[in-house]
Amino acid sequence: MSARKIIIDTDPGQDDAVAILLALASPQEIDLLGITCVAGNVPVSRTQINARIICELAGHRQIKVFAGRAAPLRRPLVTAEYVHGKTGLNGPELFEPTMPLQSQGGVEFIIETLRAEPAGSVTLCPLGPLSNIAEAFQSAPDIIGRVQEVVLMGGAYFEVGNITPAAEFNIFVDPEAANIVLKSGAPITMMPLDVTHKALTTRPRIEALRALDTPVGHFTAEMLDFFERFDIEKYGSEGGPLHDPCVIAYLIRPDLFSGRHINVEIETQSELTLGMTVADWWGVTDRPANALFMGDLDADGFFDLITQRLALL
Ligand code: BDR
Ligand code: CA
Fold first, then answer.
1. Fewer CB atoms near the end CB (10 Å): N or C, the chain?
2. What pTM was estimated for this model as a whole?
3. Which CATH code is given to the segment(s) 4-310?
4. Whose CA is nearest to atom 10 of ligand 1?
5. CA pair distance 136, 111, nearest whole angstrom
6. Nearest Cα to 22, choosing from 216, 301, 224, 256?
7. Is 243 a catalytic residue?
C-alpha cells in the first residue's frame, strides 16, 4: 500500500510535537505534504517556530511549514501557556530553527494542495483549533468533497472537558470553526479526551523514550517530563495524556483504536457549555452520523509504536 498523503494542521505543543515526530518516522505509511500552523496552545508566531524546530530535530528540513491563522474565526484567542509553558515546547533546551517558513499562507496551502492532488487522496490531520481548516472550507467549498478524511484531536463525551467543565481545548478555542468542519460533510474521525486520557505518559513510558539515547529520544523525554506535571497535579493521574499523537497512530495502526460512528454537534451559543461536543454516543436522537468518535485505545500498543518509530529518527 502506498503511503497516505496528509497535511498536519497544528499548534505545537509538546504533544503536537510527538505527533509530528511520529509522522516523520513513518514514511512507509505517511507522506507528509506539509505542516500548517495555527494559533492555539501559543500564538501562531510561536507555533510555526516550534514546528520547524521539530522538523529540524528529526533531520527533515525539507518539510514545508506554513503559518496559518493568528486567531479564531470570530473570537479572541485563548492560549494554554499554563499547560505547555511560555514557548509551547517547554522542557528541553530549544534552538532557533534555520529551515525556512514558507511564504504562502497555511490556509492557501491547504486549498491549493486539495485542488492539485487527486480527489480523495489527501487526509487532513488537525491537532489544534480548527480555524485554518474551517477558513479553507468556507473560502473554497469545492475542496470539501476532495478530502479523503479529516482525522482530528478534539472534543470529549465521557470526559466532558479540560479547559472548561464542558469543553475540550481545541474545540473551545474556535467553536465556530469546529461547527463548520463537523457540518461540512467531509468524512471525520475524532480523537476525544475519552481516548487521549487513556494514553498516559507514565514514568516507564517516558524512560523508554529517554533510553533510546538519541537527540530525538532525549528531547521527547524532556518535553514529556515538563508536559505531564500539569495533568498529574490536576487529575492525580500517573502521567499526562498524550493527545495529538493518537491522530497519527490511528493512521498507522487503526486496530489500536475503537469507537462509534455517531452524530456530533458543537455548542456555539451557551456561555456555560461553549465548545461542548454533544456526542450522541447512545444513539438517542435520529440526527445523522457525521463522525467516527473514538472511545478506547490499546495504550501499551500506542506507546510501543511511538517508541519504536522515534528510534528510527
Ligand atoms: C489539546 O489541547 C492542546 O493543549 C493539546 O495540544 C491538544 O491538542 C488537548 O485538549
Ligand atoms: Ca495540539
1. N
2. 0.97
3. 3.90.245.10
4. 169
5. 6
6. 216
7. yes
